[in-house]
Amino acid sequence: MKSPCESFLVASAALLLLGLACPSESRAKAPSSAPPSRAAAAGVVRINPRAVLRGVFWFGLVCALFSASVAFAQRTDFPSTEMPPVILRDTRPEEWPDLRSRIQTRLRLYLGERPATAQTAELKFEETGRDQVSGLTRIHYRYHVMDDAWTEGALILPPDLKAGERRSVMLIIHGTHDLGKATAMDEKNAPRRAYAIELARRGYVTFAPDLFGYGKPVDSTNRQGYLEKFDEQYPKWSQADRIVFGLQKALDLLDRLPMVRAGEYGAMGNSLGGGSTLRLMATDTRIKVGVASTGVSPQSTNIYRLVGKQKGARADFDAIVKKTGRVPYEITDMLALCAPRSLLVIEPFNDPYNPDVGATFSAVRNAWMVWNLLDAPTRASMLVHGDGHDTVDEVRNSAYGWIERWLPARTTVMEATR
Prior knowledge:
By secondary structure, the chain is α/β, with parallel strands linked by helices. It folds into two domains: about 1-20 and about 55-70; about 100-415, Rossmann fold (3-Layer(aba) Sandwich). The protein has 14 helices and nine strands. The chain has helices at about 5-20, 40, 50-75, 95-110, 115-120, 195-200, 225-235, 240-255, 270-285, 315-325, 330-335, 355-375, 395-405, 415; strands spanning about 125-135, 135-145, 150-155, 165-175, 205-210, 260-270, 285-295, 340-350, 380-385. Strands 1-2-3-5-4-6-7-8-9 form a nine-stranded mixed sheet, with helices on both faces. The longest helix is centred in the N-terminal third of the chain and has 26 residues, at about 50-75.
């Protein structure tokens, strides 16, 4: 069955051919001495069939163009024009691996190159104690990241975990706060960010690590000096990827714990935690489900806030922007690297740290086309709200439902999707 758009186009084409088949009237006719016809004498208007056909043709053409524009706007294989596309309408699934490799190459301009000492760092860890938080068992760990850098993390057990049982794990990534991981499990002072507590009550093992530059391993009164020392020591690396590297070390630790179902991991965070969730998921396929809240900020609409103020690999990134006026990679690229795994993007209309939210919508829309290409269109979603740079109760509950849909606490991802 043809769509209305196609029917209009066919009808218009037929009318055009019919109009071409009719001989045109002469613009200048010779004067005629013949007497007027009876119809003319009686004042009757004679209808010109050719004029009718021309009118119908142009009416049909206008209707067809209008109908086509609506139909094209509704098609799922058209990228948004506000942000650069990741794939085109005619991209084939077998072309995605090569496109993905090219995106990863561009992304290195942003994240930088990891030093050799990071590549060869051996995982070392120790349990440093156990206590109770919000009525749940919490296990404290200290683990080695690289060189002389160690960090800490807290594992929270679900209340119904049985001896010898393994559960899926949610990695909870904190935002920009001196206390680091503590904000992810503080129901009293940070109830809207206590994801580690709330998800543990829903049956997950949760793990909240301190990010690079935050928490107990860092003197918060001299954080700037700490970060400047890093930039001097690793001039080709970025602080953003150093955070991702530390999170990957947390996953290495989880791989070795007896209560953990290895490889069945999700990640969730807000603000810095949301952006780090996205970067980790794009980098490490062990993350099966991601919830990135207020962390998906397009480069092209946010670069003005940071350009010229960064060091290390980001300084090289800025140099490209200054020279060309264009960013070498866009957030759509990083989003697309998460496909076809399950990703929920949470963004508010009124985020002071991401003022042009329309660009974010466009970026998610264009990246979603990769999920569609890989036959996983339901695994990428976006939740939009008006509650600012935060996650209120209704937003968190929606996010938890998304996690439970794609990464059940008590069954594997394969079992859940059969």
